[in-house]
Write a structure and sequence with these properties.
The protein is an alpha+beta fold and 504 residues long. It is 24% helix and 22% strand. It has helices spanning 24-27, 64-70, 119-130, 165-168, 235-244, 255-258, 289-298, 301-307, 327-330, 358-373, 388-392, 412-420, 434-444, 449-465; strands at 2-4, 46-50, 78-80, 86-88, 91-96, 101-106, 143-149, 153-158, 198-204, 208-213, 226-231, 249-250, 266-279, 313-315, 347-353, 376-382, 398-404, 469-481. Strands 2, 9, 10, 11, 12, 13, 14, 15, 16, 17 and 18 form an 11-stranded mixed β-sheet that branches. It has a 5-stranded antiparallel β-sheet with strand order 1-7-8-6-5, with helices on one face. A two-stranded antiparallel sheet has the order 3-4. A hairpin with a 4-residue loop joins strand 5 (91-96) and strand 6 (101-106). Helix 12 (412-420) runs parallel beside helix 14 and helix 13 (434-444) packs antiparallel against helix 14. The model is unreliable at 1-41 (pLDDT under 50).
């Protein structure tokens, strides 16, 4: 069978130097987390507030994939450990048989509908992921063959050498679901068909979801008996819910609310997330590179970091921020940038979403800076699920979003291919530049830790040279956690939150 996947190369320990907040490495659980040791006695349910409601009916192929992984619902063949290396998940081990061939050995595991996790089921799940539209960010470009090998093996042969394949397979968008998930037309359903420690049992029109403990989880029964998840887009409301004890865990606490919470309930973590201004290079005023240059020179990111993020961020330096510690020493100065034109009242529409409460504030600052430079700016703010399709379709001239640069594959080249190439599945700037594609392709074909990092930074310089994207801030994440809760799992890739060991 044919499975489509981007052939991106990098040694699996390229992020060994990632900076984690003190204690983060210690609480970063293995894929199964810390299993219950109380003989299976029921534990309290966890009340969790998430910032983003499902945008695609919990489809595992788009933005909802990380919702599922954060709630402990879905898993892939592999996971990423605290150092960014591939770690066992549904695959207990793997070996590289040749430059282009890998063999993964599955552990004994069960889907939440009672079916066994078999090689044929895994191969089918991967194949179906490649047929999703748009293709998940971790999959695009080259071909590979995946086939069952005995009762527990999966053999994957890539069209080109792909040393980071185990890391790629850790992407939340490549979660393995049972055959039952695909019985109906459209996107597969993860309700009762995944493999994680918690099973979705009820969804209430996107406003909440009920999850129960999956007792046959291969990693052991979870401490908590279930999760009551609420999707609360208002950041102040999430902070208030922590303060009043209405929820046990709330993600994405606004920086403006951090000071109002008891220090004991604040958890901070370094992250590879960057807030950026994306300029529509296909249609509208920013099709002109000189006007893009004018927008880039108008923006002062230090004002944003100080005034909006209140110090919980660093000024935008590039696609990769300080959490990727090797990036700054290898950063290449962009060349060939156009000279800035005078905007002379050019009208533009700037859009962002309010699920991350800092973003509308960032947009207001950027609006003021652009207007001072001579643009006429209309600001549009929506909830993310009502905005994503229009943004990807190029219906705005400019878009401010927050993106984790290592989320999709854990490899630094992954975001370059998905977000900035002609065929990229999350190309908010609609950039299609032959020099950029050539630089990303070169990085994709580069082996060796240092060499691959150098190639990634050269590609970053090519992208920044187009002024299609203006990095604004490299963020930290703030979570609100009740003092009664233990085992919350924070990581710089923002893939995890609740695991088998999370409890109160």
């Amino acid at each position: 069978m044919q499975v489509r996947v981007l052939s991106i190369k990098s040694p699996v320990r390229f992020v060994a130097a990632l900076v984690l907040v003190p204690g983060l490495a210690g609480c970063f659980a293995s894929p199964g987390g810390e299993s219950s040791s109380d003989g299976g006695q029921p534990g309290s349910r966890l009340r969790v507030a998430l910032a983003f409601p499902p945008a695609e009916n919990f489809s595992p192929y788009g933005a909802d994939a990380t919702l599922l992984s954060r709630l402990g619902v879905t898993e892939g063949l592999t996971a990423l450990d605290a150092n960014g290396a591939a770690a066992p998940a549904l695959a207990e081990s793997w070996r590289r048989e040749s430059d282009r061939t890998w063999r993964f050995t599955l552990r004994e595991a069960t889907f939440q509908d009672g079916a066994d996790v078999t090689p044929s089921a895994v191969a089918d799940a991967l194949t179906r992921a490649t047929k999703a539209k748009p293709v998940p960010a971790a999959l695009a470009g080259a071909t590979l063959d995946a086939e069952a090998d005995g009762s527990r093996g999966i053999r994957i042969t890539t069209a080109a050498a792909d040393p980071v394949l185990p890391m790629r397979l850790s992407s939340p968008s490549l979660a393995i679901l049972s055959p039952k998930a695909y019985e109906k037309k459209g996107a597969p359903t993860p309700v009762g068909t995944a493999t994680g420690p918690f099973e979705i049992t009820k969804v209430d029109s996107g406003g909440s979801a009920t999850l129960d403990r999956f007792d046959d989880y291969w990693g052991g029964r979870a401490h908590a008996s279930g999760i009551d998840a609420r999707f609360v887009k208002d950041g102040t409301a999430r902070a208030n819910a922590v303060r009043t004890g209405d929820v046990d865990i709330a993600e994405a606490i606004p920086v403006a609310q951090a000071a109002t919470l008891d220090k004991a309930t604040l958890r901070e973590a370094g992250t590879t997330r960057t807030t950026s201004l994306h300029l529509n290079t296909r249609t509208g005023p920013f099709k002109d590179p000189e006007l893009r240059a004018a927008a880039r020179t108008a923006v002062d990111s230090s004002v944003i970091v100080k005034g909006v993020f209140e110090g919980y961020a660093d000024p935008g330096a590039g696609i990769y921020g300080p959490a990727v510690t090797w990036a700054e020493s290898k950063r290449v100065k962009p060349a060939g940038r156009a000279d800035a034109a005078r905007p002379d009242g050019t009208r533009i529409t700037l859009a962002t979403y309010d699920n991350r409460p800092e973003l509308p504030e960032v947009a207001q600052v950027v609006q003021q800076q652009l207007e001072k430079a001579g643009f006429t700016v209309k600001l549009e703010v929506r909830e993310y699920s009502r905005l994503e399709s229009d943004a990807l379709a190029g219906k705005f001239d400019a878009f401010i979003g927050a993106r984790n640069s290592l989320l999709d594959t854990g490899d630094p080249v992954g975001i370059l291919a998905s977000d900035y190439t002609c065929d990229g599945g999350y190309n908010l700037a609609l950039l299609c530049d032959k020099n950029v594609d050539r630089a990303v392709q070169k990085a994709d074909g580069t082996d060796g830790t240092g060499e691959r990092q150098d190639a990634a930074m050269a590609a970053e310089a090519a992208i920044l040279g187009t002024d299609a994207v203006v990095p604004l801030a490299h963020q930290q994440i703030i979570a609100g956690v009740s003092t009664e809760v233990r085992g919350v799992v924070l990581d710089p890739y923002e893939r995890t939150l609740v695991g088998a060991g999370t409890r109160r």
